[in-house]
Amino acid sequence: MQSTALEENGFFIHRGLTKASIDDILYLLNKYSIYTVSTDDTQRGDDLEIILSSASQKPIYEQITSQIKGMIMSGELKSGDPMPSMRGLAKDLHISVITAQHAYEDLQRDGFITTVAGKGTFVAAQNKDFIREEQLRLAEEKLYEAAQIGRENHIQLEQLIRTLTMFYEEDE
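^ that's the sequence the OP posted. Answer follows.
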């Protein structure tokens, strides 16, 4: 079966896609940018894939930080794996070096990466249980603040739980 293609907005659209689905695809492409970040070390066979959203409430450095933390916690990035240089990260993501530096400083402060002078930046050897406990502690602090705001403003516990559930499931 031979498909015909129309060029619309720079994309080849095959027969069967509706105008609405084309609009959805263009919307997602404008909302999210997917970047492949190269490491300086060719021993690492795969590159990092970072997704940045211009519509996100999170600053870009936090989007980068949370995705790299997730890759480390899931085992996609392992202890000792090389990370791109700050300049390389900035270039690959089309962001400023200052933004990349901010992300790396947060990752280093939280114990996820380490920098060795003259050698580069690497995924730190870490205890995943310790990191998970630290992240749980941070979440508990935020939840405590939310509970205080709820009590002070007479917001029902059920409403807070529904809101937390909505936020938790939002990115799935």
